[in-house]
Amino acid sequence: MADKGHIMDKLIITAALTGAEVTRAQQPALPITPEEIGIAAAECAAAGASIVHVHARHPDGTPTQDKAVYREIIDEVHKRCDVIVQISTGGAVGMTPQERLAPVSLQPEMATLSMGSVNFGNDVFLNRPDDIALFAAEMRAHGVKPELEIFDSGMLATARRWLAKGSLPSPAHFDFVMGVPGGMAATPQALLYLLSELPQGCTWTVAGIGPAQLPMATLGILWGGHVRVGFEDNIHYRKGELAQSNAQLVARVARLAKELGREVATAQEARQLLGMR
Questions:
Q1: pLDDT for 140-160, tens place per residue?
Q2: Residue 190, Cα to own-chain centre: how many angstroms?
Q3: Does residue 171 have a cis bond before it (omega within 30 degrees)?
Q4: How far is Cα 122 from Cα 272, in angstroms, rounded to an integer?
């Protein structure tokens, strides 16, 4: 029998493979088709990722929440590797809640649930309270584990209220997305504040945008959280150098974790850590 305490120390690495906004012109290695996303997922799993966060695209690269495309992606991933497939319900800015929710009915293991609205560059990522309630209810109905997306501190306060009244499953898993223009800054001080407000018993991942990805990942490893990397958040390996693949970014975090004394979780261990199985 596995040592539960030992497993609790392990690091979950999430690979955010594609996103809704990065283009091939910006990152030639961006996976777009379901097959490409499946191949990228397998490469990331081999490098140490136990979750892949996926957005769907049309063949021309434009974002879609088409359930049929997500079904293809999930099938392509599962036939190549054992990872937790976490679908995006963020979709792309401007999509309706109904569009964004469509793939939840496929019953993926996980899906993102954004806990509020935020300025997103020159746009607004809109998440009304009624929409959040709808998303939470649909995930519950389909047995999908939500990852609560936090772009600013007010969203964490909202999540605490909803957890307290039983409107979200507890213990929850959070993703602190830091460094979005319009959201919370990607600084150690900001992350420490979020952790000071984290509800007891909950787990957390940190995602740093752009050049913040590596320092935030390092803090996630050191401070007992989990880490998200990948092309959705950052296309560079270092300043002025494009990453060769999502797996290259995952492998760096896995190496850092080893040097800092944390083993990387397998997909099955990640499920146990997140209370999924």
A1: 999 999 999 999 999 999 999
A2: 19
A3: yes
A4: 39
Answer yes or no: is pLDDT of 122 > 80: yes
| pLDDT tens column, 46-86 | 999 999 999 999 999 999 999 999 999 999 999 999 999 99
Amino acid letter, 165: K
Q: Is 217 helix (H, G, I), strand (E, B) or coil?
A: helix
Asked if residues 111 and 89 have their Cβ atoms less than 8 Å apart, the reply is yes
The count of structural domains within the chain is 1
Specify whether the backbone of 61 is left (phi greater than 0), alpha (psi in -120 to 50) or beta. Answer: left
Domain of residue 60, CATH code: 3.20.20.70
**193/141 Cα distance (integer angstroms):** 33
d(CA 98, CA 89): 10
Residue 121 pLDDT greater than 90, yes or no: no
pTM as predicted: 0.96
Domain coverage including residue 56: 4-273
Q: pLDDT tens for residues 204-249?
A: 999 999 999 999 999 999 999 999 999 999 999 999 999 999 999 9
Distance from C-alpha of 223 to C-alpha of 63, rounded to nearest angstrom: 34
Q: Cβ–Cβ contacts within 10 Å for residue 210, how many?
A: 13
